[in-house]
Amino acid sequence: MAERTPEQPTADMDLSVMPDDVWVLDQARLVGTALETGTTDSIAVEYDGTHAQLVILTTTGARTGRTRQTPVIRVEHEGRYAAVASKGGAPTHPAWYHNLVANPEVLLWDGAETKPYRAREVHGAVRQEWWERAVRAWPSYEGYRSKTTRTIPVLVLEPVD
């Protein structure tokens, strides 16, 4: 019996139940495209009628210590960024969230520039402010929130001087 090849996510997929191998392959495809073109301007996502640009986070693995590159929705405000750990509304946090909590120093690649940032999880009114920005950038976040019982973490990435 032939092994099933994971497919690329489509607009009608329920991302909260998307198998991890599909997530990994799609992220690798997006990172590969950005590497080939030299810019994250070449990668975007479309889902449920919404189009959004992506940025790439380079994190250090919480358990392995290995470098990981992960595309996330671009949510920028006054030189700071938000990383929303939605995983499409899945019941568990994405792996990159654990990496950022364990190792908050990150490189963020936006357009043709890569700069160092420090991540911190936000709560209360600050989280709400960033959540609203994130929903403006990617309205599907609201739908993801309704699919899960967990509070979707929001991390703010601040430039390191």
Structure description:
- The protein has one domain (16-159): Electron Transport, Fmn-binding Protein, Chain A (Pnp Oxidase, Chain A, Roll), CATH 2.30.110.
- It is 30% helix and 31% strand.
- The chain is built from 4 helices and 8 strands.
- Strands 1, 2, 3, 4, 5, 6, 7 and 8 form an 8-stranded antiparallel β-sheet that branches.
- Residues 1-6 have low confidence and may be disordered.
User: Which residues form runs of ≥5 with pLDDT under 50?
Assistant: 1-6
Note the total helix count: 4
- The share of residues in extended strands comes to 25-35%
Shape annotation: globular
- What CATH architecture label applies? Roll
Total domain modules = 1
Query: CATH superfamily, called what?
Result: Electron Transport, Fmn-binding Protein, Chain A
* N-to-C series of helices and strands: HEEEEEHEEHHE
Q: Give me the CATH fold name.
A: Pnp Oxidase, Chain A
Mean pLDDT: 87
Q: What top-tier CATH class fits best?
A: Mainly Beta
Major sheet attributes: 8 strands, antiparallel
Structural class call reads alpha+beta
Distance between the terminal alpha carbons, to the nearest Å? 55 Å
Rg, Å, rounded: 15 Å
